[in-house]
């Protein structure tokens, strides 16, 4: 789509900050006004629109996309999105440890991942079933309930970031640690990629895998920054 506007503004309104192009409100795909809950986030979205050239490229507007998801997707179908995020409570990658033939990896996972799980145990009053190998074992109903409640408690814009983050990280516990400001985003990215990084140390890096991880990291850090801006 060709750029059709000259001026971009972030304007205070009753329920937040609206983005306007030449004085007209920006609409989401579902025709909701693009209204952001925090000034810092509104300024970041404004910068995305202002930074477009002759052609509007949605791929360069990740904050706008996440905001649209919060207003359209989560705003209209919140229970399904909450359930989708909470489902990771039963399949969190942090539960799965190296098997009997991978003791060195298992020890490394214990050292690096257990502090994160210990934080979650204390924060949410839950317990975790750890698995040696890849065979699934369900977590307790209480753990699933408590973590689902932690997801449900978040606002729509936080859920939009969480939906992106949990898919990239494969760990609800890690994402909750980020939401609660208990852990650094860069450190959490290293932890959720621990096994892949371990294998690279042992056998060398695969160029395609490294490139794919780098692309995912950009998306992950963008969603983490969106989450931060929602709360400023």
3D structure, described in words:
The chain has helices at residues 39-50, 62-86, 103-124, 141-152, 156-169, 172-179, 185-192, 194-203, 207-230; strands at residues 8-13, 16-21, 24-25, 35-36, 96-97, 131-132. The protein is an alpha+beta fold. The protein has two domains: 1-60, 2-Layer Sandwich (ATP12-like), CATH 3.30.2180.10; 79-230, ATP12-like fold (Orthogonal Bundle). The strands form two sheets. Strands 1, 2, 3 and 4 form a four-stranded antiparallel beta sheet that branches. Strands 5-6 form a two-stranded parallel sheet. It is globular.
Helix-residue proportion: 55-70%
Here the CATH topology of the largest domain equals ATP12-like fold
Q: State the major sheet.
A: 4 strands, antiparallel
Overall pLDDT = 96
Ends distance:
32 Å
N-to-C SSE string, H for helix and E for strand: EEEEHHEHEHHHHHH
Shape: globular
Element layout with pairings:
Blueprint: E1 8-13, E2 16-21, E3 24-25, E4 35-36, H1 39-50, H2 62-86, E5 96-97, H3 103-124, E6 131-132, H4 141-152, H5 156-169, H6 172-179, H7 185-192, H8 194-203, H9 207-230
Parallel strand pairs: 5-6
Antiparallel strand pairs: 1-2, 2-3, 2-4
Concise structural overview:
The chain has 232 residues and is of the alpha+beta class. It has helices spanning 39-50, 62-86, 103-124, 141-152, 156-169, 172-179, 185-192, 194-203, 207-230, and strands spanning 8-13, 16-21, 24-25, 35-36, 96-97, 131-132.
Q: Key features?
A:
232 residues; alpha+beta; ATP12-like; ATP12-like fold; 2 domains; 4-stranded antiparallel β-sheet; two-stranded parallel ribbon; 9 helices; 9% strand; globular
């Amino acid at each position: 789509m060709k750029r059709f506007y000259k001026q971009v503004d972030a304007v205070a309104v009753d329920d937040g900050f609206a983005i306007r192009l030449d004085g007209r409100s920006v609409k989401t795909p579902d025709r909701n006004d693009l209204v952001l809950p925090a000034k810092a986030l509104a300024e970041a979205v404004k910068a995305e629109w202002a930074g477009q050239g002759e052609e509007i490229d949605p791929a360069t507007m990740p904050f706008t996309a996440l905001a649209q998801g919060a207003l359209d997707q989560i705003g209209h179908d919140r229970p399904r999105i909450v359930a989708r995020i909470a489902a990771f409570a039963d399949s969190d990658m942090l539960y799965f440890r190296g098997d009997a033939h991978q003791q060195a990896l298992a020890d490394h996972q214990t050292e690096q991942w257990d502090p994160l799980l210990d934080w979650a145990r204390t924060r949410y009053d839950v317990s975790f079933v750890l698995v040696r190998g890849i065979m699934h074992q369900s977590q307790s109903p209480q753990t699933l309930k408590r973590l689902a409640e932690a997801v449900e408690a978040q606002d729509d814009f936080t859920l939009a970031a969480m939906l992106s983050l949990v898919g990239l990280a494969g760990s609800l516990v890690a994402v909750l640690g980020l939401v609660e400001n208990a852990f650094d985003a860069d450190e959490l990215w290293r932890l959720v990629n621990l096994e892949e990084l371990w294998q690279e140390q042992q056998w060398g890096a695969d160029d395609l895998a490294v490139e794919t991880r780098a692309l995912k990291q950009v998306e992950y850090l963008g969603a983490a920054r969106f989450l931060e801006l929602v709360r400023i």
